[in-house]
Amino acid sequence: MSSDSYTGAPAPGHARAAGAAPSWPVTDAVRQALAIARRGCDELLIEDEFTLKLARSAATGTPLRIKLGLDPTAPDIHLGHTVVLNKMRQLQDLGHTVIFLIGDFTSLIGDPSGRNSTRPPLTEEQIDVNAKTYFEQATLVLDREKTEVRHNREWLSPLGADGLIKLASRYTVARMLERDDFTKRFAGGVPISIHEFLYPLLQGYDSVALKADLELGGTDQKFNLLVGRELQKQSGQEPQCVLTMPLLEGLDGVDKMSKSKNNYIGISERPNDMFGKLMSISDTLMWRYFELLSFQSIEALARFRAEAEGGRNPRDFKVMLAQEIVTRFHSARDAERALEDFNHRARGGVPDDVPEVALSGAPLGIAALLKQAGLVPSGAEATRNIEQNGVRIDGTVVSDRALKLEAGVYVVQVGKRRFARVTLA
Q1: Annotated binding site for ATP
Q2: pTM
Q3: Quaternary arrangement and interactors, per the entry (predicted)?
């Protein structure tokens, strides 16, 4: 096995002999681990430092401490969150210690990253409810038995006012305004609350408390992750490296995946819904999803692209991706059933698992029925779907916005995926 030597700082907790510079071999296994870390990432800072950490870990048998923090601002995790969770799992499978940090304290502030306005802080009750589901969903990707779960209330609550003041003294306003979103808001006269400056400091302090070797996050987290490096240096620790992952576009292929944009796929959604949403993405966006969500090898993805360029139907690959994702979060049998259901719908059939809805008020206008059945969020959206021939009653397209339905049982469809069996009284 070929190897180079890498000279650098000693492992934390290990003293360096006077005048001695440790040499850690960069073996083929270390290079392979580095390639796994770099796959699909946006940036790895500082790569030379991380190579040293990997080499030292391999030589000493000491796993790296790899941190990912998520604020429980909503009860569900979507596929966009799993981009960075997938990377955590890859590093976990290499034998490193992964720390799933639930930001139950920092959620009280609200992460300002990527926002053009102050994020409304959540209540402790909202945070506790959301946090209960976060780890359960995260372990659909991470190995539950090998994951260290922490809450930053552990060290941030005891910090107190004096500790917070000392922490705030370690960073300047000028440095904070280097953050892109703060810069734009300040230049545009958009208010920035003082408490928002505390968020990057507290996230950085998490890295000090956990003695992290590597912190992961989305590209919008880069500034916060670098604050962690700086605070670790000031605390006499070896600074963490930073790995940022791209933000996954939502189903529209434009905005990042977000519940507020309603362009997301939740990892706890029903298999058929998850499959159908994945099949709805564009052929171009499909490759982006393969790169960031699939566990297929780089070589396999290159082969798929070549086959598509050679004339193979892109739908074949989209089915492959959808089945892989549904299998991961449900089961292989669920993935097969979801494919069968999707093909059945494509032939104009009605899915087997149509939700049952009971309504009263017959005769009821079609727009009101669609809204009350939960098939559309508003009457205006109901009207828009009718005008676009997107509404069917028992398989027949509805074109009359003034239609009123008498008492009875109807299979109602909006678009390709939204169905309800409505019993109207």
Answers
A1: 259
A2: 0.71
A3: Homodimer.
